[in-house]
Design a protein that fits this description.
Length: 141
């Protein structure tokens, strides 16, 4: 997929948890499978993560009713523990995530290349919904 005129989209949130917990929950497969969905009718039944430059990751995202599933994955291009992760998705688009510690809170910002298949608003809403799911899961557990 090509990016839509190299448009960058950004989603962000502040999580009620310290940076060490946020980092662990963001990267550990046993946590990824608990939060990586945009709505309650979706799930992430599988996740693998090799968090290092050149390492690969993938997450299977699936409708709970079994009607649709897809793998989301890529390769890491930058990893700075507790600060930044960058990767290239399997379709060539780039993503950067920054983590900013604010005491017992952590600010997470994701910036990603848009794609051409869906509207910018839909993409931003979908990524924000997943980030909101992360915030809820991490803050409550």
């Amino acid at each position: 997929m090509e990016t839509a005129n190299n448009t960058l989209l950004t989603v962000e949130t502040t999580v009620n948890a310290p940076i060490t917990k946020v980092w662990d929950y963001w990267n550990a497969p046993e946590h990824i499978t608990q939060w990586c969905q945009a709505s309650d009718d979706w799930q992430a039944p599988a996740a693998e993560n090799d968090l290092r430059i050149g390492g690969k990751f993938f997450t299977t995202m699936a409708a709970k009713d079994g009607s649709f599933s897809f793998d989301f994955g890529g390769e890491y291009t930058d990893v700075e523990q507790y600060k930044r992760i960058a990767y290239t998705m399997s379709d060539g688009r780039k993503v950067q995530i920054t983590f900013t510690s604010e005491g017992d809170f952590t600010h997470v910002t994701e910036t990603f290349d848009a794609e051409q298949s869906n509207s910018l608003e839909m993409q931003q809403a979908g990524w924000q919904a997943i980030l909101n799911s992360f915030k809820k899961y991490t803050g409550e557990n």
